[in-house]
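User: Can you recover a sequence for this backbone? Please restate the input before giving your answer.

Assistant: Of course. Working from this structure:
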């Protein structure tokens, strides 16, 4: 089971993008871990730390709780704008985190979220392939590539790395059989399941108000 940072943040009344505090996030993470018997991975966004050392401390907190893995993004939000980080510098961060975990005898599946498609950067297929080949050298365990949907692009990404590729449900994404044929190993629902449920709550609330009755709820 993987958390959606956007869903957790929205549920707490925040926007996505590390607007909720790490401690607030930890409360929800602890409740999830206590409620399920399957491995839990955490969408850690940009790491909830300004330095590699701070991010590592967060990872050690998560491993102490029994978290199995994380997603961490290769982009950064400055003001209201998100942009890609320098790939080489980000790769060094991942290497530092993997080595730091090992030095504390801890293991954590690190799934790098590459944001070249979510940001629709120029020459995104080439930029993605370059980044995936670099990230493969860091000790990372997987690649998360949200907002990719074209089958040729997915095939190119799969062929650019030996790491397992994770995609996210978006309009136009091929079905599970096609994704399996393309070599995709994992698919995430992102915030879409959460948003669908909450949108239905809004519709139901409006129906109750319109009908001046709870019949539609009951």
């Amino acid at each position: 089971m993987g958390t959606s940072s956007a869903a957790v943040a929205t549920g707490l009344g925040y926007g996505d993008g590390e607007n909720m505090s790490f401690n607030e996030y930890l409360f929800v993470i602890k409740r999830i871990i206590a409620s399920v018997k399957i491995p839990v991975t955490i969408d850690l966004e940009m790491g909830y730390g300004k330095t590699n050392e701070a991010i590592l401390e967060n990872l050690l907190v998560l491993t102490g709780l029994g978290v199995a893995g994380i997603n961490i993004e290769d982009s950064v939000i400055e003001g209201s704008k998100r942009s890609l980080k320098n790939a080489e510098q980000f790769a060094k961060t991942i290497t530092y985190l993997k080595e730091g975990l090992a030095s504390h005898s801890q293991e954590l599946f690190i799934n790098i979220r590459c944001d070249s498609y979510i940001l629709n950067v120029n020459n995104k297929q080439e930029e993605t392939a370059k980044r995936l080949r670099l990230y493969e050298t860091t000790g990372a365990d997987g690649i998360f590539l949200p907002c990719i949907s074209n089958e040729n692009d997915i095939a190119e990404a799969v062929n650019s790395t030996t790491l397992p590729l994770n995609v996210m449900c978006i309009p136009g994404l091929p079905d599970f059989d096609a994704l399996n044929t393309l070599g995709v190993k994992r698919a995430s629902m992102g915030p879409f399941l959460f948003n669908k449920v909450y949108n239905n709550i809004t519709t139901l609330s409006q129906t109750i108000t319109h009908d001046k009755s709870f019949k539609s709820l009951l």
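That completes the design. The two ends are 31 Å apart (CA to CA).
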